Amino acid sequence: MNASVVGRSVQRVDIRTKVQGQRKYPQDFHMEGMLHAAVVWSAHPHARITSIDTSRAEACAGVVKVLTHLDVPVNEYGINILDQQVLCEDRVRWLGDRVAVVVAETEAVAREAAAVVSVEYDPLPILDDPRESMKPGSPLVHENRESNVLVHYPIRAGDLDAGFSKADVIVEGYYLTPHVEHAYLQPEAGLGYIDDEGRVTVICATQWAYDDVHQIAHALDLPEDRVREIVPAIGGAFGGREDVSLQILVALGAFHTRRPVKMVWTREESFRGHGKRHPFFMRYKHGATRDGTLVALEAEIVADAGAYASTSTVVISNAVTFAAGPYVVPNARIDGYAVYTNNAVTMAMRGFGATQMPVGYECQMDKLAEALGMDPVELRLKNLYEEGSIAVTGNAVTFGIGAKEPLREAALAAGWREEAGHWKAPEVEPALQPHLRRGLGVACGYKNVGYSMGFEDRSEAIVELRLREDGAIASALVRIAASEVGQGVSTVLAQIAAETLGIPFERVRMSLVDTARAPDAGSSSASRHTYMSGNAVFMACQDALQARDDTLREETGRMHAQGQAVFRGRTARATTPLDPETGQCEPHIAYTFATQIALVEVDTETGEVEILTMWDSTNSGRAINPAMVFGQVAGGIHMGVGYALTERFIQEEGRIKTRGFGEYYIPTVLDMPRELVHVGVEVPNPTGPYGATGIGETTTLPTAPAILNAIHNAIGKWVYRLPADSETVWRALHERRRPA
């Protein structure tokens, strides 16, 4: 038996080839006879299409085919609801709609010809505010619906009026979060071709290859076994590659021309053509007794779904389950709405509806602490979940949850002390200049692991063993279609395999994600692969060991053994859908918790905010690879800092104003905290592989509200909207709010 591999910071399996530039990304693939494709984008946020004339484009030298809606066998797609057209026929609903695709011998010719496709439009009213769009009588984004409200999810717990009647203190707030760009480095790229077995094959970057296959096959009206997807290296995702972007387009090109067809989007096309994080408009009202016990919560969340459903239904359902935060609130009325507009489609982005909510509930917690004269850490500890606590959805929160440990560890690291049963914050050292103010802010967050609310979450793995003559394992190959989007899933799964098989880590190889060769592992999202696919690999390894032992007992002389297993989330906890009237359910399989504390310095003359120190404590369950846990923490905080201070994707009347990185302010190293202190917490989950859960999204959740609370602590003014850039903070200092 080898020394334990789980719990060691082994080197990532893909790091060397990536650093040396040897790994191939989708745009790096070329094939003999390859054609190139370019999109004809919608010219209006909302309009009827009255005519499409492709004759000038078809007459261009080098053009092979101009594809329109007439060339799409089944002109519909969507990750959850089939409300999008592959190529628009009679109506466009946002600037990211595709009207036609030009396929040509070179990319230059394809783009030149795309520019001369003539499309005539009859403009329609533009809806750019979900609060207006949801009103009765508003023009419809989808004319076949009764209203623009895509979904409404209510949660009802206890007796709200009775709860507020018990409250000694009531605080309210209205919070706004913006559209946010995923900003992955690799723009959308794909290559479609017909493989040796006649399958329509797509090479692309995606988070869930099998779901892409399902959508491509549907659009092309093919059996799913006649479609194949291969996923090489991926240059970031963060939820932005869950929906299909150009996959159907390159598949359609190959399907019609029977030649390889490649498409690579420019950065401006990427900003235009894929979805963003949902803006949330959140109204909160909390009630607490004099001793700090939460007794009532009323909340309304309105999410901008944009032009199509994408993942809005599950994002808003997630959001309402997390609206109370990781706190016990016996009486609650929560309403969540996702509303169609003519803005950019909104979709999954790191946190999946759980990232916006802490901006509301954690600022509310600091408001309550101030109104009660309590320390903000003490107030949170008093109300945080414990094993068996009942959530607003009526379920008991169990499995060694570890909600309080991160808060305790972060607070102690930041200088808090517990004295005579009460918590006391440290004194903040004054700034060196009189116009600078310093403040501390704390925030908690929690997130589900795996898909929720009745979804049949599953992951399948195959493990192939090559044996020596004496039966010892020479090497192992793990086949599993778990997309490596930069989070380290290939390394974690290899560590779990090595640990379970009892072999050195170096003897485990991971297969390429290829739907023709690797079984479905589900999506690289919902912080699920360590837990879901880790369990599948663990079980497949055990099955392979049993097959090896059976082979040795039979003395067949076979030099190989194979194991296969499917892990289903419901075996750990069976989730159920939200009750349509009360929202009561068993929402999630498992949870992770985090706390962050920010020390900021605010320039009162300019409104500029600098983060001096950030303390983080995140419960990862058992840390399979501690170095990668820290990487997730640092990356999550980086994204959270952008969310808090700099990043806003700007649209005006459905027109996209943010077209590239020169207009979208991602934090640089100069914007990051001067010091990052990470205090790991490992409360094992007994249902996870070796006690692990998942933390890929959780580390982003507390960052923005911790910074907002620190700003308030520094200047005594509340900032209610993100990003809290210098102008927004300056306006707060001078009581000049932006319009809501």
Class based on secondary structure composition and strand pairing = alpha+beta
Integer count of domains? 3
On the 0-100 scale, what is the average pLDDT?
96
Q: DSSP helix count?
A: 17
What's the CATH H-level homologous superfamily of the largest domain?
Aldehyde oxidase/xanthine dehydrogenase, molybdopterin binding domain
What would CATH call the architecture of the largest domain?
2-Layer Sandwich
Could you tell me the CATH topology label of the largest domain: Aldehyde Oxidoreductase, domain 4
Radius of gyration equals 26 Å
Write a structural description.
This protein is of the alpha+beta class and 740 residues long. The protein has three domains: 15-23 and 456-571, Aldehyde Oxidoreductase, domain 4 (2-Layer Sandwich); 31-124 and 188-264, Aldehyde oxidase/xanthine dehydrogenase, a/b hammerhead (Aldehyde Oxidoreductase, domain 3, Alpha-Beta Complex), CATH 3.90.1170.50; 276-452 and 577-733, Aldehyde oxidase/xanthine dehydrogenase, molybdopterin binding domain (Aldehyde Oxidoreductase, domain 4), CATH 3.30.365.10. Helix content is 25%, strand content 26%. It has 17 helices and 32 strands. The strands form nine sheets. It has an eight-stranded mixed sheet with strand order 3-5-1-12-9-10-11-26. Helix 10 (357-372) runs parallel beside helix 16, helix 13 (489-501) runs parallel beside helix 14 and helix 15 crosses helix 16. The chain is globular. The model has no long low-confidence stretch (mean pLDDT 96).
